[in-house]
Design goal:
The structure is a single chain. Helix content is 12%, strand content 50%. The chain is mainly beta and 72 residues long. It has one domain. The model has no long low-confidence stretch (mean pLDDT 94).
Length: 72
């Protein structure tokens, strides 16, 4: 089940062995799995989707680069 979130700092991912690609600042949806987190977003007319390792996702959250809504 996906949850709303916000990209508020530099968050990047790689496609294969390519260069890092930045996820644009703004609203996104996050679905957390056992090994990774899937992030989806809209930028203009394009939809983006990537999965990042859970350890990287947690680091982005702890640094404030990904904001999650309060659980309470």
């Amino acid at each position: 089940m996906s949850k709303p979130a916000r990209i508020s700092g530099p968050v990047s991912y790689r496609e294969g062995e390519g260069q890092p690609i930045e996820i644009p600042l703004g609203p996104c949806e996050v679905e957390i799995g056992e090994l990774d987190a899937t992030i989806s977003w809209i930028e203009g007319d394009a939809h983006g989707l990537t999965a990042i390792p859970l350890a990287d996702f947690r680091r982005f959250v702890s640094q404030g680069d990904i904001e999650l809504p309060d659980a309470g």
